Amino acid sequence: MTSSSSSSQVITEYGKQNIFGRETQPQLVEDYTSYPEEAEKTNGRWAMIGFFSLLVSYFTTGQIIPGIF
């Protein structure tokens, strides 16, 4: 690919304008020491909320997903 000199448009080898966005530079975050543990806790809490809401829905309406099952 070659770049046009008059603007920031990118022209492909076929003479067409590249319509895809530019790739952003990755950012390095130094403080990821407890990320896996926090991710597991968060995932478990959302799973508990989902299971609880499923039980409440079943006990109040008699259906697993009200209106569908």
TrEMBL record:
Protein name: High light inducible protein
Sequence intervals crossing the membrane: 46-65
Keywords assigned: Membrane, Transmembrane, Transmembrane helix
Taxonomic source organism: Prochlorococcus marinus XMU1408
